[in-house]
Predict the 3D structure of the following.
Amino acid sequence: MLKSTIALCLLLAGTIGAQNFPSAQSILSSTRLQVSRQEVEVQGQLREKDLIVPFRLSQTGPLIRYSFTNPDQALQLRLGESDSKLEEISGNGVDKISGPEFSQKVRGTAITYEDLAFKFIYWPDAKVVGEDYINTRRVWKLELQPPARQSQYSRVFVWCEQQSGALMRMEGFDWNGKLAKRFEVVSVQKIEGRYFLKQMRIEELLPGTGKVRSRTYLEIKK
């Protein structure tokens, strides 16, 4: 009788553990939709210790533009159905940012051009690895791997809010399998009836140690 009870408990535990999670691609599709449906024009800043980099962010659906001054620079992100495209706009025209340029840092902060391009939410090799809670919000945890070794990350874990698809956290691992960078939403705000990012913390870590090398905050003002 005891063996039968244990076997039944193990079977039930296996059934619970194998819940009918949605597919990773359906979750990422919801995330891409959530990112691309914003209509907003706000001021923001990147802040890292004494370094403050102000910018203006304007978004019309899948088109997002970041405008910096001193020196002037305009970055434009196009979110497509199957990929994203990051471009730099200048008086000479529009130049696509790609390849080795992706590893460059934006204005000396912990954020790279690849991070800004949201490339990882398009990676086809993705799987749901569980559920979690972040700030009382229920989230899906996904593991993503790049299709080629062109990324600075060998794999990325993302936490997407189940209700909205919003990205709440991201952890990127280098090609030695060490945690290299962590993004986390600290707070959100309501702008014109929609919830929008207020503050995100970006931590660059010393691989293999867990120690923070640098910490940048991306902050949006109404």
Q: What stands out?
A: The longest strand covers residues 179-191. The first helix runs from residue 2 to 17. Confidence is low (pLDDT under 50) at residues 2-18.
